[in-house]
Design goal:
The protein has a six-stranded mixed sheet with strand order 6-7-8-3-9-10. Strands 2-1-4-5 form a four-stranded antiparallel sheet, with no helix packed on it. It is globular. It has nine helices and ten strands. The protein has one domain (about 30-270): Rossmann fold (3-Layer(aba) Sandwich), CATH 3.40.50. A hairpin with a 2-residue loop joins β9 (about 240-245) and β10 (about 250-255). α4 (about 130-140) runs parallel beside α6 (about 175-190) and α6 (about 175-190) packs parallel to α7 (about 205-220). It has helices at about 25, 75-85, 105-115, 130-140, 145-160, 175-190, 205-220, 235, 260-270, and strands spanning about 35-45, 50-60, 65-70, 90-95, 100, 115-120, 195-200, 225-230, 240-245, 250-255. About 35% of the residues lie in helices and about 25% in strands. About 45% of the residues are buried. By secondary structure, the chain is α/β, with parallel strands linked by helices. The chain binds adenosine-5'-triphosphate and magnesium ion. Magnesium ion (MG) binds near residues 76, 77 and 198.
Length: about 270
């Protein structure tokens, strides 16, 4: 599968068949939302093969909020790309939202991303020529929902992120925090099962980062989301139910009982 640019996420053709409809029972059937076994990923580079993961395992249950931390270059973004069918594993199995993501064709992968995954990146990737409302409505319209209905739902989501009065602003007419709120609304407008956020507060000042994180926490709880957040902000990571550290190609659980102490340990090791 070809790598897809973030801006293309959520855009599927109108004629595309949607993945199987999921009933509430399927969502709550007790199986993990993410089940990764023995994942390996290698890249061929001019200097040889770069082996990123060594039989990495990850299980995330429905409604969990998990933080992934780790040094720059450890493979955090690559892991999220694989979970969201933006990149493929070299070996191992990756089940995400009951889907074997490695087996999806590019068309199926696009539909899977549109329906099951909400992505938020460090940079918002809003389309600058469209208004906030139009940006949020876009994933719905990509599914074939009529513009008027899509914009109605989009307006509800802008309200959810506290931006009902900014719907007609283009992205350049929004602050960094507002842009990220719009990106969050766009990520969730299709009611995905899984929210994948890659340093969602990385580009923001401390106070704005805190506010965005609060919005993520609120939406995670109120919409029954399962969320995986990659962050370098260890204080925010400590607010997640679980913290996993990606190191030497594997994920290591940071003990929750002494989470704060472990996070301080992480801080010392990473030199931050
Ligand atoms: N398409 C690619 N081809 C070759 N190497 C790649 C490719 N994509 C990523 N890498 C390499 O894989 C490693 C992990 O990259 P990744 O972006 O996943 O790191 P990260 O943990 O997200 O880092 P950061 O915290 O800086 O965002 C890096 O060394 C990177 O150079
Ligand atoms: Mg990264």
């Amino acid at each position: 599968m070809k790598q897809t640019t973030p801006a293309a996420v959520g855009q599927v053709s109108r004629t595309q068949r949607e993945p199987e409809a999921r009933t509430q029972e399927m969502v709550e059937d007790g199986s993990p939302v993410v089940d990764v076994r023995d994942l390996e990923k290698s890249y061929r580079t001019a200097r040889g093969t770069l082996q990123l993961f060594s039989k990495l395992n990850l299980r995330v249950e429905a409604r969990e909020m998990v933080a992934i931390v780790g040094q720059s270059g450890a493979g955090k973004s690559t892991l999220l790309h694989i979970l969201g069918a933006l990149d493929t594993p070299s070996a191992g199995t990756v089940y995400c939202a009951s889907t074997d993501v490695a087996r999806l064709t590019p068309r199926q992968a696009a539909a899977f991303r549109n329906r099951e995954i909400g992505y938020v990146w460090q940079f918002h990737y809003l389309l600058p020529e469209f208004t906030a409302l139009e940006n949020v409505a876009m994933p719905l319209q990509a599914r074939g929902i009529h513009r008027r209905d899509a914009q109605k739902t989009a307006a509800d989501w802008l309200k959810e992120v506290g931006l009902e009065e900014r719907g007609d602003h283009r992205s350049g007419e929004l602050s960094g925090g507002e842009q990220q709120r719009v990106a969050l609304a766009r990520a969730l407008v299709n009611r995905p099962r899984l929210l994948l956020a890659d340093e969602p507060t990385g580009d923001l000042d401390a106070i704005t980062a805190e506010r965005i994180f609060e919005v993520i926490e609120r939406l995670h709880a109120s919409h029954g989301l399962t969320s995986i957040l990659v962050t370098h902000n260890l204080e925010l990571a400590a607010r997640c139910a679980r913290i996993l550290r990606l190191e030497n190609g594997c994920l290591r659980e940071v003990a929750s009982a002494s989470k704060n102490k472990d996070v301080i340990g992480l801080q010392e090791r990473s030199g931050k």
